[in-house]
Amino acid sequence: MPQPHVTMPPLIILCLAHLAAAYALFQVLRSRRTVTAGWRAVGPSGMHWFCFAGVWALSAFISWIWIFVGSNRPDADTQMMWALALALFFAIGAAWGGLHIASLRRTSLRWRGAQIRWEAKRASQAQEMANIVSAKRRANGALRLTFADGSAFDLDIHASNADAFLASISERRGRDIW
What we know:
alpha+beta, 7 strands, 3-stranded antiparallel β-sheet, 2 domains, CATH 2.40.50, 51% helix, elongated
């Protein structure tokens, strides 16, 4: 039975936040990585998976407490307001994390030797490591690799094998990429 402080508008908003996380889960399950034998791949790391699954589980737990358990302390109204805010923020964070995982899987960044391949705009892109003209950090933490032909790629430096990918570029160029 829901607690007396649970009213319909915040409950609907909380349900929408959890639906956004469920939609992100659907996108993760729907996304397919291009697996090519002999190529090394960059993909979601454990940090990405924890951001998605762990944060969503925490949001579900706090939501359950907000809806069904409540608080008997004198400041229960304040506690439950903060519980609702945390549950919302964690569910939104889980949705963002899931969509980011799906994006990393769809991108399918891979390399072999000096060749780089990835999927962008429903087409396979290919570049040589020697064609990289700049590597700059963006405000979102990604590393933007710009190629001689003007094309660019944003690399999540926290992704699995991103460090090996950057080391491979640095070795081939003879200097540190960033």
